[in-house]
Design goal:
Layout lengths: L17 E5 L12 H10 L3 E5 L2 H4 L3 H6 L1 H19 L6 E6 L1 H12 L6 E5 L22 E4 L15 E5 L10 H7 L2 H16 L5 E4 L2 H5 L17 E3 L10 E5 L23
Parallel strand pairs: 1-2, 1-3, 3-4, 4-5, 5-6, 6-9
Antiparallel strand pairs: 7-8, 7-9
Helix pairs in contact: 1-7, 4-5
Family: Belongs to the AB hydrolase superfamily. Lipase family.
Main location: secreted
Pfam families: Lipase
């Protein structure tokens, strides 16, 4: 679909949230890394969906593609701004979800829109050639609310706090459960793509990934104290990671996941009784 010439059919509900998906490096709009998210939104059928395709740049050598993050984002932002204005969608209805290099592009699209978008979700933002102070990295001011899910920190992803709320499932570093062998063969793409698998699952199972506020030190130690069914956590904020996350969440959060789908453990993160503290 060419969004520049798109005329909305009368049955299209423009009051719904608009979800915009942005794939990562070496991918396209049909790539296995983001297909589960697209499928989950289509199955749920509660939002409008656009899937960006920047594959002509994404297939270039990584350093080149990384250098083009800002121009690609500005181009996408310009198209999106014209599109929502023409069909009558308010920026506060728009939620952009990006993976890897696409997570930084998503942030810059939000920046292009003056931070007015409802939400930017960064799924394992790309780490290589990004520094803590990179001006074109995703950041907390890119939208009204920015959340980040880290799954391959220190390798293909970042171990850097970039959002209003940053989630570190299984401490956010590789190997993610179930990726131990696969990461060796795929050079970490299994752990890197877990972020999209977790987010896709959260669309249809919104309370699958109950995550609790925890310091970076506690997260790196994978402390049980971070889990929702430990008695001492009653004073900790516990929120659902993923689609159902509310915009008031702030800080760093920890959760554990299963090795195979469904990945979410709900509140049964230690095999104990479920907690009602969310």
């Amino acid at each position: 679909m060419d969004v520049e010439s798109f005329e909305p059919p009368p049955e299209l509900d423009l009051g719904r949230q608009l979800k915009v998906l942005i794939h990562g490096w070496n991918a396209d709009r049909n790539h296995v890394s983001i297909l589960p998210i697209r499928t989950a939104y289509l199955v749920q059928d509660a939002q409008n969906l656009l899937v960006a395709d920047w594959s002509p740049v994404a297939v270039l050598l990584y350093p080149t593609a990384r250098d083009l993050v800002l121009p690609v984002a500005n181009r996408l932002g310009s198209i999106l701004a014209r599109f929502i204005k023409r069909v009558g969608i308010d920026p506060s209805q728009v939620h952009i979800i990006g993976h890897s290099l696409g997570a930084h592009i998503a942030g810059n699209v939000g920046r292009h829109m003056d931070g007015k978008l409802r939400r930017v979700t960064a799924l394992d933002p790309a780490g290589p050639l990004f520094a803590l102070d990179s001006k074109d990295a995703v950041g907390p001011d890119n939208a009204q609310f920015v959340d980040v899910i880290h799954t391959d920190g220190l390798t293909l992803g970042e171990n850097v706090v970039r959002g209003n709320a940053d989630f570190f499932p299984n401490s956010g570093t590789p190997p993610q459960p179930g990726c131990e062998t696969l990461d060796v063969f795929t050079l970490h793409s299994c752990s890197h793509a877990r972020s999209t698998g977790f987010f896709a699952e959260s669309i249809l199972l919104p309370y699958s990934f109950i995550s609790c506020a925890c310091s970076r030190e506690e997260i790196s130690r994978k402390d049980d104290i971070c889990l929702p069914d430990v008695r001492e956590t009653s004073l900790r904020e516990c929120v659902p990671m993923g689609e159902a996350l509310g915009p008031s969440a702030r800080g760093t959060f920890f959760t554990r996941t299963s090795r195979v789908p469904p990945f979410g453990l709900g509140n049964h993160t230690m095999g104990g009784q479920a907690s009602n503290r969310h």
